[in-house]
Amino acid sequence: MTDVFISYRREDGLIHARFLSEKLTNSSCRVFFDQEDIPPGNDFDLTIKKHLEECNDVILIVTKSYFGMKDSNHQLRIQQDSDWVRKEIALALSHHKNIIPLLFNDIQYPKASEIPTDIQAVLKKHYIRTFNDEKPDRLLNNIKDSLSPSTQTHMKFGQYVKIFNTISQNKKNHFTDEIKNVCKKLNEEKINQQLVPLLNSDESNDIKFLAYYTIFTFYRRREEKSKIYNFIEKYSTYFEDYPFNNIVLSQYYKFKYDENIDDFESLDKAICFANEARQQIQQNYGVYITYSELVALGLENNSSRYKAHLQEAIDSIHKANELKKDYPKNYYIYGKLLAYSGDYTVGLHFIKKAIDLEDRENTDSFIRILQYSTSKESIIYKMENQKLEERLKRYIILNSLFLIVFVIVLCCLIVYFR
């Protein structure tokens, strides 16, 4: 897709066209400039027509030669059917493009009688006058203000298109880390003014999915659940074919479960989507840890219901640890899996190890230490309760046996003394 097509004559307009192309491109505008955007071997005519037909705006670099260039026979080039400047203007007019003429220095429009009838309408287009000594930023701002709404909208989110183009979904093990880095520089205003318009644009689905996943990650890290619900419910169906959307949906249902820990159907769905992602996406730390963490949550609250997932969750933790060796969270989740499946002692050992490995000077680490410590105390409490229950059971059994023996002896004595 092209936002702006630059029409010029090479004789005296090339330097201006190149300058403008560079400035607009740096402002996140998709510019077609034939000197740079027609690869060797491509059909020149077809490429020019294609970009003219799909662009929003056409900027005319009106220098002395633009309308006044003559051929070797002293005939005006603009009058000739084969002249590409004439063709470009005619195509722009016939496709009702937003045409922005830039008149340099003291250049004037030609008289209508001096140009072909099929392009005379261009003389009615309001132009921007610019001079050699004019500040570039002023000219650029004037051009930006004259661009079509579609181009202006794209320029708002264009910087993110560039960022997302550098993120390859083939690098599965780096995907989530790269998205987190994007989120660090985000705020609510940028989401509403840049990323949401990008989601509703004509960009490729791959680019839009990365915007979708970035917004989800931003809200998830801030735990803004109501925004997550509204956002996912509005956009998730557009990206059903993307494996990482399963991670989004798993977190959606996990948040639903957090609001009601008796809603095991939501947790079932969360684990199901996380498992689908785990099967589709290889060598991704976040995918492995998400599945194992959800299973640990299930074992914590309903061990019998989720015990069937235990071994796969442990396998995922081992794979996660291969990607991030000795990362504290690996030991924390592994410890929870073991503890809530019944092996309290070994589970507590790994949770304590996770606590010891965290950097206590780091704020995020300190928050995780609190989380790990809370889980540790909960497991200890559950372990003590289980011991107490076992003692109580033994006490009841012993008392029951004593009572049975007492009754038997009593019955024997009654029979004997009859």
Report on the architecture of this protein.
There is one protein chain. The protein has 418 residues and is mainly alpha-helical. Helix content is 65%, strand content 5%. The protein has 19 helices and five strands. The chain has a five-stranded parallel sheet with strand order 2-1-3-4-5, with helices on both faces. α1 links the parallel β1 and β2. It starts with a strand and ends with a helix.
What's the SSE blueprint?
Layout: E1 4-7, H1 10-26, E2 31-32, H2 34-37, H3 44-54, E3 57-62, H4 64-68, H5 84-94, E4 98-104, E5 128-130, H6 136-146, H7 149-165, H8 175-183, H9 188-199, H10 205-221, H11 225-235, H12 245-259, H13 264-280, H14 285-301, H15 303-306, H16 310-323, H17 328-340, H18 344-357, H19 363-416
Structural class based on helices, strands and sheet pairing: mainly alpha
Separate helix tally: 19
**Largest sheet features:** 5 strands, parallel
Q: Which segments are poorly predicted (pLDDT under 50) over 5 or more consecutive residues?
A: none
SS strand fraction: 5-15%
Mean pLDDT: 90
Distance between the termini: 108 Å
What strand line-up does the widest sheet have?
A: 2-1-3-4-5
What does the oligomeric state look like here? Answer: single chain
- Strand element count: 5
